[in-house]
Design brief:
8-stranded parallel beta barrel; two-stranded parallel ribbon; binds 6-O-phosphono-beta-D-glucopyranose; Glyco_hydro_1
């Protein structure tokens, strides 16, 4: 049988993905409180800020903060959703800005204007037969939770998050079935301020702090799963992993061991969220690094009982690991994680390795490991697009990237993987998370705005818009 004989399931969720802080803008409208993401500037201080090395927790006059306006989805979501509907989207992944719902995070009651905003957005989606897929926390949190409590390093956050999630489930129980607790939960190890609102104090054991924050998030995620199942019968709650298989650079056993360790650094989170307990290798890692996680009575039970229903993950690239110091000199970029350069792969303009087959391998690995439905909630090519003399954008490179990845998804389905959906990242151009640029575009829809924040914000369909529309209407047969 060849590839053409295998089909995506009829109910496959084709769509696209966005995140509040990268598309909404309106950072100080509608009663929204200030969030960590509002303090991450574009330019040379961006990475420092994402890591938690900020000069101040205030907005600085000499910095440009791309999230403040982003693509103004806050005011334009109706016209944008109409374009998604025109492409035939079956679902749309968005995230809720925590500080629109609880402006300070520890408020007594939620902000009605914020709740109403998302209610209207969900209504707009449902009117267009688009199923909402909601990330509860996509890198953002109210700044007060950082100033007063120290972000996720403080166990008190579990309670605030639980209240936030229960509020969402109660309010949107008739409208939203698919939820994800934390976007790319493993990112907190790499970008602790963006991922978990962590600022390190002088002399603090950074690993200890990060793993404590991870534990707090894991318990919070399990409690959210519990709450969703109680409040919304039939709801599906997923975890979300920044995934990508790690290949050993060679068949040297030291490279194999290194690749396994690198994979486990990420699997740790999902092993807890999906299997319900700390795996043996994680206990060893914590012991070897003198990390002592403060756990309270009942935590183990909570983690064990309230595991996720599906595995959501992003895939942009595979990674490569080596134990050889010479090989380690050849590193390349990629979704924050640096990787050894794989000589068999091409890279994007931003140095991210392009590996469609790695998606099939990642799907198989995740499915073999967890035996739960998989949802690819991010994938795509960040590239420079140009509007030609006729006002058209011929992004054939994006089509090629997506086509090759979808072919491999089909292979994974043929391998027996239970794949439920695909939401390519940044289905409309938005602010890049790693660089803060607009120039790094992922969308099927172009947004007229540049790196300095200039532009009309006008939307334009790219060539990939029409291509993806055909992909969806043929359920992945016409590529
Ligand atoms: C993922 C994030 O890490 O990758 C998104 O969940 C992000 O928020 C995406 O935008 C692509 O990364 P970048 O840096 O190209 O925007």
């Amino acid at each position: 049988m060849n590839n053409n004989s295998y089909k995506f399931p009829e109910e496959f969720l084709w769509g696209g993905a966005l995140a509040a802080n990268q598309c909404e803008g309106a950072y100080n409208e509608g009663g929204r409180g200030l969030a960590n993401v509002d303090l991450i500037p574009k330019g040379k201080n961006r990475f420092k800020a994402m890591e938690g090395k900020l000069e101040s927790l205030n907005i600085l006059a000499d910095e440009y903060y791309p999230s403040h306006e982003a693509i103004d989805f806050y005011h334009k979501f109706r016209e944008d959703i109409a374009l998604f509907a025109e492409m035939g989207f079956k679902c749309l992944r968005i995230s809720i800005a925590w500080s629109r719902i609880f402006p300070n995070g520890d408020d007594e009651s939620p902000n009605e204007e914020g709740l109403k905003f998302y209610e209207e957005m969900f209504d707009e989606m449902l009117k267009n037969n688009i199923e909402p897929v909601v990330t509860i926390c996509h890198f953002d949190m109210p700044i007060t939770l950082i100033k007063k409590y120290g972000g996720w390093k403080n166990r008190a956050l579990i309670g605030f998050y639980e209240k936030y999630t229960r509020t969402l489930f109660e309010r949107y129980k008739e409208k939203v079935k698919y939820w994800m607790t934390f976007n790319e939960i493993n990112m907190l190890l790499h970008l602790p301020f963006m991922g978990a609102g962590i600022l390190f104090e002088e002399g603090e054991n950074e690993l200890q702090v990060k793993y404590q924050a991870a534990h707090n998030e894991l318990v919070a995620s399990a409690l959210a799963t519990k709450a969703a199942h109680e409040i919304i019968p039939g709801s599906m709650v997923g975890c979300m992993l920044a995934a990508g298989v790690t290949y050993p650079y060679s068949c040297n056993p030291n490279d194999i061991q290194r690749a396994i360790e690198k994979e486990r650094e990420n699997f740790f989170f999902i092993d807890v969220q999906s299997r319900g307990e700390y795996p043996g290798y994680a206990k060893r890692f914590l012991r070897d690094n003198n990390i002592e996680i403060h756990m309270e009575a009942g935590d183990g039970e909570i983690l064990k009982t309230y595991t996720v229903d599906y595995i959501g993950f992003s895939y942009y690239s595979s990674r490569c690991a080596s134990a050889d110091p010479e090989v380690l000199k050849g590193m390349t970029a990629g979704n924050v994680f640096k990787s050894v350069r794989n000589p068999h792969l091409q890279v994007s303009e931003w140095g991210w390795q392009i590996d469609p087959k790695g998606l099939r391998i990642t799907c198989n690995n995740l499915y073999d490991r967890y035996q739960k439905p998989l949802f690819i909630v991010e994938n795509g090519l960040g590239a420079v697009d140009t509007v030609d003399g006729n006002g058209e954008i011929n992004d054939y490179y994006r089509i090629e990237y997506l086509r090759e990845h979808i072919k491999e998804m089909k292979e994974a389905v043929a391998d027996g993987v239970n794949l439920i959906g695909y939401t390519p990242w940044g289905c409309i151009d938005l602010v890049s998370a790693s660089t803060g640029e607009m120039k790094k575009r992922y969308g099927f829809i172009y947004v007229d705005k540049d790196n300095e924040g200039k532009g009309t914000l006008e939307r334009k369909k790219k060539k990939s818009f029409y291509w993806y529309k055909d992909v969806i209407s043929s359920n992945g047969e016409e590529l």
